[in-house]
Amino acid sequence: NGYQTALLAPTTILAYQHFQNFQERLKGLPLNVAMLSRIQSKKEQEKVIKELNAGHIDIAIGTHRLLSRDVRFHNLGLFVIDDAQRFGVKQKEKFKELRASLDILSLSATPIPRTLYMALSSLKSISAIQTPPQGRLPVKTTVARRKDSLIKEAIQLELKRKGQVYYLHNRVGTIDQVKMYLEKLAPKAKFGIAHGRLREKELIRIMD
Q1: What gap in Å lies between CA 30 and CA 26, rounded to an integer?
Q2: What is the pLDDT of residues 115-145, one digit of tens each?
Q3: Whole-angstrom distance between the N-terminal and C-terminal Cα of the chain?
Q4: CB distance 139 to 166 below 8 Å
Q5: Segments of 90-186 assigned E as strands
Q6: Residue 140: per-residue pLDDT
Q7: Sheet containing strand 59-62, strands side by side
């Protein structure tokens, strides 16, 4: 209805994943979706900011970069905060200053006490999503003594159903050795390593 939407995510990876989802879901609709984060070149960022200000972008998805002083919206109507507990009060209040009638939707898997207090005091309305997505299977957890055969079987079962495997290791220093070990157990699988010391662009490429 002539208004713009901003979606704020705490990490570049999450913002990028949202951006991909929005593009896929809104394909074929006359809506312009753009992403704004610090991993983009200065030229790309300037182009997005210019188009936001002119009103050519309907949905802007980004990180803290959306809160920068140089970012101005043409007519912002809805502000969505994903993983709201990861943002400070000052950051959230900044958008309220832009428009008195701005609608704000905060999403959180683990609400902070302040949010719960505001909800229970009826200062904020709250809704809980308790219905799992369609076709969602319950998580099956097995606690067992470590065995190569057990790990191999679990990986093969997952690959057989065209799924993906996430293997968690506790040290960055020895993660390459773990990859080699897993490659022997599942030679047909494609492997990628992801950890906090990787550059953001590389991490996004692997997650992609």
Answers
A1: 8
A2: 778 788 887 788 888 888 888 888 889 899 9
A3: 33
A4: no
A5: 103-106
A6: 86
A7: 33-36, 59-62, 4-8, 76-81, 103-106
